[in-house]
């Protein structure tokens, strides 16, 4: 008699050319939703996949009397859960008339990245996604005494050992699953606050940075669902003397990567300073609880930049300064930011 595990792991490739496509989209509050359909294949081009629809009145994206929202496939990834020929499909959301709905931030980002001036600069992004793992029943970080606190920060950043690193099995499962899916995940590490981790996606060019980070978040939520824990992207999950969670965004253009690029970087940073308030408003909910000027952050009210300064709004690395070219890191985005918004906004401000 086959077990549930046997059936979940059934290899369908010998019996049918059909495959399962899991369509993923972003809901009204920045959460992820998905549903699956059977298709014949294989298909490796999202434009060859059919559009689909969902009940927008159940996701806060449409009224009940006109509830249909259409999802357009935009990027395909291998499915690390079903494996085989099955795929994950990142989608964005439209009205039946073909207009992007208000929560569709990808559409505007794609327009910015397809602008000839932006495309010519081949913008690279590397996003450092911090997150906190919580016990499902009590909404408290894993590894912490229930209702209590661990020892102070210090030994946990990149720490090892049962008293310092909590949830590594989830982190490593996510790392490998992202690599399997085709996401350019470039590393992981334990963070300063116990129960908090980080993964990095990139370098990714233009709109693909947003696609890859959203699907990496999706895979992480699916893995924590299996593990019975909750992943939080709150920028300050625990008040007090504990680090918050950000999504530091590393950025370069072709001009910045070429000889003399450091001067281009300094001009780009000056442009970011002039639009500090607009960027902060778009860089994530609750960020004012994180950007206090403490715990490796700059004040939300004042723009600053510096070389190797993790207390600045924007940090330039020592290597970039030494070589006279490279990239910079915008440290302001919160962990719950929308990468479509942040990456396209940085490109628009610095190039257009």
TrEMBL record:
<feature type="domain" description="GS beta-grasp">
    <location>
        <begin position="19"/>
        <end position="98"/>
    </location>
</feature>
<dbReference type="Pfam" id="PF00120">
    <property type="entry name" value="Gln-synt_C"/>
</dbReference>
<dbReference type="InterPro" id="IPR027302">
    <property type="entry name" value="Gln_synth_N_conserv_site"/>
</dbReference>
<dbReference type="Pfam" id="PF03951">
    <property type="entry name" value="Gln-synt_N"/>
</dbReference>
<dbReference type="GO" id="GO:0005524">
    <property type="term" value="F:ATP binding"/>
</dbReference>
<dbReference type="InterPro" id="IPR008147">
    <property type="entry name" value="Gln_synt_N"/>
</dbReference>
<dbReference type="InterPro" id="IPR014746">
    <property type="entry name" value="Gln_synth/guanido_kin_cat_dom"/>
</dbReference>
<dbReference type="InterPro" id="IPR027303">
    <property type="entry name" value="Gln_synth_gly_rich_site"/>
</dbReference>
<dbReference type="GO" id="GO:0006542">
    <property type="term" value="P:glutamine biosynthetic process"/>
</dbReference>
<comment type="similarity">
    <text>Belongs to the glutamine synthetase family.</text>
</comment>
<dbReference type="InterPro" id="IPR050292">
    <property type="entry name" value="Glutamine_Synthetase"/>
</dbReference>
<dbReference type="InterPro" id="IPR036651">
    <property type="entry name" value="Gln_synt_N_sf"/>
</dbReference>
<protein>
    <recommendedName>
        <fullName>Glutamine synthetase</fullName>
        <ecNumber>6.3.1.2</ecNumber>
    </recommendedName>
</protein>
<keyword id="KW-0067">ATP-binding</keyword>
<keyword id="KW-0547">Nucleotide-binding</keyword>
<keyword id="KW-0436">Ligase</keyword>
<dbReference type="GO" id="GO:0004356">
    <property type="term" value="F:glutamine synthetase activity"/>
</dbReference>
<dbReference type="GO" id="GO:0005737">
    <property type="term" value="C:cytoplasm"/>
</dbReference>
<feature type="domain" description="GS catalytic">
    <location>
        <begin position="105"/>
        <end position="352"/>
    </location>
</feature>
<dbReference type="InterPro" id="IPR008146">
    <property type="entry name" value="Gln_synth_cat_dom"/>
</dbReference>
